[in-house]
Structures are given as structure tokens and as C-alpha cells.
């Protein structure tokens, strides 16, 4: 605060305490300038101070996240101690067992849905064994709470319908009314429309009014639910007053602080004060972690606000923590909420990376152009004195670049080169054979040696030529795809996998799909290459696909995914 105050003091002294005499209009103008300057300085300083506070809180939150496992371990140890007490209870002491089950439920209700649900059911069973209607209703209310926390609105409502609130003492009535208020408020938030939401908010507020009449005016519950009620009816000033009273209370537990800060943040979100809302959500998230609360919306809402402000790194970190908490707890609706925003954050991160890459490429291009211009300038200046040396340098650099380009092209076109070489080699051998055959044939014809011509014609073994052609194809293909057979067989059950004969590289089944992997999908072209009919090729393909454990429509797509070397 020292620097801004000093600046304001200097400005005031300059305007008002100069020795020369000023007229009234000039003094008034100077006064107005002074007021404006003060306001600007205070706004700038306030913004800087607020950002510094936010950064400090984010650092604290990151530190707490790193040590979250220690808080969870302490929670688990506390739960284990209660379980040990339960195990040592006599089988007939149902009253004490009900009390311990209730404590275990309270430990689990914000920590793990499945375990909390299990102990809520145990509470019901124990209350039934005790034949105690009041405890049965308490157990039903606990069960309803955990069902609602998991997003099971219908099941929660059906369970609540069985509760006889008229036999509750005031403390349980207040708890019941608060729970009903939360039920309708959650329904309002879930529907989030102009038709049902207003009615649900009215019902929730009516139940809160009933609860507030039963709470002591100075209690946490009274202040918290009074603030919540005022938020829901749009009275943000009164809501802020109740919650600020709680925020100043140093006796709040971590869970109470988290509830207060998180709900108060909603008040600031509604009024557009996002920075203050973020600071409150950070405090709530820290308190949630310290109390091992997994059923929480604070860190999720924090990630959402940071995402809107463009802080993708922090948003990504906190949305992952929110997702882990949602899965750890088992809250269905929280999983849906987190899963909806997570892809948006990740997509924006990818967009940022792509944008940065494009910026770097632009900068690299500009730098390259500048370097080229510099080199050109040097060449012009020293052309006469260092012409030979510069020429050699240019040639050397060009050769290096050309070698790099050639190397990349060689790698990129290896597939084409192998088969082009294969076909040129095959054609060369074929033309040599044909040339030799032609010369022999012309000699025999000239000498009219018909019998020798017939014998010469018989020396051409079409079957052997075809086998050699296919063998060459098999070798080249397996050179490019050395693991083709193994990966092909993974798409079949063991009894249907292809077993090659001795000295056999590929068989007809494999060749058909080898050609497909080469990019030849037309059955007519495959039939011409392998010298089969189109129907035969289609029959082979259908038979092989029907044996596969991969769906027929995905089979060829899986073939195309087999990688070359």
C-alpha cells in the first residue's frame, strides 16, 4: 500500500499546495483531476493486490493437493478405529451398535458413497431389530441424504416419503427440513429451466423457513441456511452479511468453512465478482481436502471459473482432481458435470498448443527471412573478396539440406521404393528371359527345327513362374510388414489362427489381405493379381471375416492399422 499512497500524496501536493494563486475554476478542475487520479491508482493497486492474493491461494491449494493422501489416510485410520469398536461390541448391544453405525455413516457420507450407503442400510436393519420407529426414520433420512448426494432423486424422494417427521424432536425436524430444502434446490439446479426451476426454488425456500424457526439464532446452521435462503431469493446483500459472519468465525470446522466459502462464492458469481468468487472457492477446496471431503463442488466450480478466465493449466489440474474425487466418492451427477467440461478444457489446451506452434513457426519464418537478408547483404558486400569461399559455403549448406531432404524422402517413400524396386527387378528378369527365348526361337524357326521348337516352348513353366512371382511378393511384403502374420492372427481365436506350411511365407488367405493392406481394396483387381475369379476372392474374404473375433465391418480397418517397419 506504501507506493500508491505516496503517489497520491505527491499528486495532491502538486495540485493544491503550489505557491502561485489559482482562480476558482482552475482549482476545481485540478481537484477533479486529483479525484480521477486517486480512483485510477486505487483500482490498479486493488487489482494487483487481488491477483497477488489469488496467486498465493492457488499456491497453497497446490501444496494441499500434493499432501491430500495424508489427510485421506488420517480419515481412514479414524474409520478403522470406529470399525474396531464395532467389532468388539456384544452382539446384543444394538443401541451402542446403532450409535457406532451412525458415526461411521457420518465419516463416510462425504467420503465414499458405497460405504455410506452400506452403513445407512445397517442403520435401518439395526433400528428394525430395536423396533424403534424414531431410529428407523433417522436411518431413512440418512439413506435419503446419501441417495441425493449421488444424484438419485427419485430413490431419495421415495425414501423420504416414509419418514414421520411429526415424531421428531426439534433438532431432527430442522435437519429434515434442511434436507428437503436441499432436495428441491438440487432439483431446481438440475432442471435449470424457466418452467420447473422457479417452483422448486419456492418449495426449497419454504422448507428452509421451517428449519430456521428451529435453529438457535447464533448457531452455524442458522447463519448458513439464512445466507443460502437469501441467495436463492436474490437478496445478495443479506446473504453476504450472514456468510461473512461465518467467515470471521475461527471456530468453524474445515467442512463448515468449505460449505460457507463455497456457497458464498455463488453469491459473488451471481453478482459478477469473479475474482472474489475464485478466492472463496480456493479456500473451500483447501478445506475440502483437509477434511477429506470427496462429495464437493468447490474444486469443480473453481476449475470452471479458471477455464473461463483462460488459466488452462490450473483449470486442467483442478478438473482432474474433481474427476478423481467424483470417482472416489461415486457421485453420478458429479461425474457427468466433470466429464462435460473436461473435454472442453483439454480441447482448449490443444488449441493453445497449436496456436503457440503456429506463432513459433511464424517467428521462425521471420527470423529465417531476416537471416537470409543478412546473408544476402554480406554476400553483396564481400562478393569480390570472398566470392569463392561464400560459393563453397552455399554449396555445402545446399548439399546438407539436400541430404536431409533426401533422407526424409527415403524414409517416407520406403514402402514405394521397395515395391518399385521389386517390380523393376522382376520385369528385368522377365525381359531377359523373353529375350533369350526369342533368340532361341528365331534360331529354331530359321533352321525349321519344329520338334526343338515344341521342346523349347515346353521349357516355359507358367506354374513355377507364378509361384516365383508370389514368392517374391511374399518376401517383399514381409520385409515391410515383418509382424503382419502375428498381428493378423490376433484377430482370431487360437483354433482359427492361420498355420503356414513349411517354407511357406504367405498363403492365399494372407495374400488377399496383404494386398488390401497395400491399398488394393477392389476385389476385381485382387482377383486379377492372384488369378482367381471375383466370386472366389469374395468367398475367401467372407469366410475369413466370419471366423474372426473382430466384427466384419471393422475387419479391414484393423488390417489397415497393422504397421510397417
Structural features, described:
With 565 residues, this protein is an all-alpha fold. Among the domains are: 2-66; 89-167; 168-229; 382-412; 461-560, no CATH class. The chain contains 25 helices and no strands. The chain has helices at residues 2-16, 24-66, 68-88, 94-108, 113-130, 133-149, 153-160, 170-191, 197-212, 220-232, 236-247, 254-270, 274-290, 298-309, 312-329, 332-381, 383-412, 414-446, 450-458, 462-480, 484-489, 508-517, 523-530, 534-547, 552-560. Helix 6 packs parallel to helix 8 and helix 16 runs antiparallel to helix 17. The longest helix has 50 residues, at 332-381. The radius of gyration is 40 Å and the shape is elongated. It starts with a helix and ends in a 5-residue tail after the last helix. 24% of the residues are buried.
Q: How widely separated are the two ends? A: 66 Å
| Rg (CA only) | 40 Å
Unreliable stretches covering 5 or more consecutive residues: 1-26
Element string (H = helix, E = strand): HHHHHHHHHHHHHHHHHHHHHHHHH
Q: Work out the helicity level.
A: over 70%
Major sheet details: none
User: In what range is the share of β-strand residues?
Assistant: under 5%
How many beta-strand runs?
A: 0
Please, how many helices? 25
Shape: elongated
Q: State mean pLDDT (0 to 100 scale).
A: 82
Query: What would you call the structural class?
Result: mainly alpha
Amino acid at each position: 500500500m506504501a507506493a500508491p499512497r505516496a503517489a497520491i500524496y505527491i499528486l495532491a501536493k502538486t495540485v493544491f499546495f503550489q505557491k502561485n494563486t489559482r482562480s476558482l475554476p482552475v482549482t476545481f478542475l485540478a481537484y477533479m483531476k486529483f479525484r480521477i487520479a486517486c480512483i485510477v491508482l486505487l483500482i490498479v493497486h486493488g487489482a494487483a493486490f487481488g491477483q497477488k492474493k489469488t496467486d498465493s491461494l492457488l499456491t497453497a491449494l497446490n501444496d494441499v493437493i500434493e499432501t491430500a493422501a495424508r489427510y485421506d489416510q488420517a480419515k481412514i485410520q479414524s474409520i478403522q478405529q470406529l470399525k474396531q469398536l464395532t467389532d468388539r461390541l456384544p452382539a446384543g448391544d444394538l443401541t451402542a451398535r446403532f450409535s457406532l453405525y451412525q458415526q461411521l455413516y457420518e465419516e463416510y457420507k462425504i467420503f465414499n458413497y458405497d460405504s455410506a450407503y452400506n452403513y445407512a442400510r445397517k442403520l435401518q436393519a439395526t433400528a428394525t431389530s430395536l423396533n424403534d420407529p424414531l431410529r428407523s426414520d433417522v436411518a431413512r433420512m440418512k439413506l435419503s441424504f446419501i441417495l441425493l448426494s449421488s444424484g438419485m432423486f427419485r430413490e431419495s424422494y421415495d425414501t423420504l416419503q416414509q419418514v414421520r417427521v411429526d415424531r421428531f424432536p426439534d433438532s431432527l425436524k430442522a435437519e429434515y427440513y434442511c434436507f428437503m430444502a436441499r432436495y428441491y434446490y438440487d432439483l431446481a439446479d438440475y432442471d435449470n429451466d424457466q418452467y420447473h426451476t422457479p417452483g422448486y426454488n419456492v418449495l426449497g425456500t419454504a422448507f428452509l423457513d421451517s428449519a430456521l424457526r428451529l435453529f438457535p439464532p447464533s448457531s452455524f446452521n442458522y447463519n448458513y441456511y439464512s445466507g443460502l435462503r437469501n441467495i436463492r431469493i436474490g437478496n445478495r446483500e443479506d446473504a453476504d452479511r450472514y456468510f461473512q459472519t461465518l467467515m470471521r468465525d475461527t471456530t468453524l470446522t474445515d467442512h463448515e468453512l468449505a460449505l460457507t466459502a463455497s456457497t458464498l462464492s455463488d453469491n459473488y458469481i451471481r453478482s459478477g465478482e469473479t475474482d472474489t468468487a475464485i478466492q472463496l472457492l480456493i479456500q473451500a477446496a483447501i478445506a475440502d481436502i483437509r477434511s477429506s471431503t470427496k462429495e464437493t463442488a468447490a474444486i469443480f466450480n473453481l476449475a470452471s471459473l479458471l477455464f473461463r478466465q483462460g488459466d488452462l493449466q490450473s483449470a486442467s489440474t483442478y478438473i482432474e482432481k474433481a474427476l478423481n474425487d467424483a470417482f472416489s466418492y461415486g457421485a453420478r451427477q458429479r461425474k457427468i458435470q466433470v466429464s462435460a467440461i473436461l473435454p472442453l478444457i483439454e480441447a482448449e489446451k490443444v488449441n493453445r498448443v497449436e496456436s503457440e506452434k503456429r506463432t513459433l513457426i511464424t517467428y521462425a519464418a521471420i527470423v529465417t527471412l531476416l537471416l537470409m537478408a543478412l546473408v544476402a547483404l554480406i554476400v553483396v558486400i564481400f562478393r569480390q573478396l570472398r566470392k569463392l569461399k561464400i560459393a563453397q559455403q552455399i554449396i555445402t549448406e545446399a548439399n546438407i539440406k539436400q541430404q536431409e531432404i533426401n533422407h526424409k524422402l527415403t524414409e517416407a517413400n520406403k514402402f514405394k521404393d521397395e515395391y518399385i524396386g521389386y517390380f523393376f527387378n522382376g520385369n528385368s528378369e522377365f525381359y531377359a528371359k523373353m529375350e533369350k527365348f526369342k533368340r532361341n526361337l528365331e534360331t529354331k524357326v530359321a533352321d525349321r527345327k519344329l520338334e526343338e521348337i515344341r521342346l523349347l516352348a515346353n521349357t516355359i513353366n507358367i506354374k513355377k513362374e507364378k509361384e516365383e512371382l508370389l514368392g517374391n511378393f511374399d518376401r517383399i511384403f514381409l520385409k515391410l510388414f515383418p509382424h503382419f502374420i502375428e498381428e493378423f492372427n490376433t484377430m482370431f481365436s487360437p483354433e482359427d489362427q492361420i498355420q503356414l506350411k513349411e517354407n511357406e511365407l504367405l498363403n492365399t488367405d494372407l495374400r488377399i489381405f496383404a494386398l488390401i493392406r497395400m491399398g488394393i481394396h477392389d476385389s476385381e483387381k485382387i482377383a486379377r493379381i492372384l488369378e482367381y475369379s471375383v466370386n472366389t476372392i469374395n468367398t475367401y474374404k467372407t469366410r475369413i471375416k466370419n471366423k474372426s473375433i473382430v466384427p466384419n465391418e471393422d475387419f479391414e480397418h484393423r488390417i489397415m492399422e497393422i504397421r510397417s517397419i
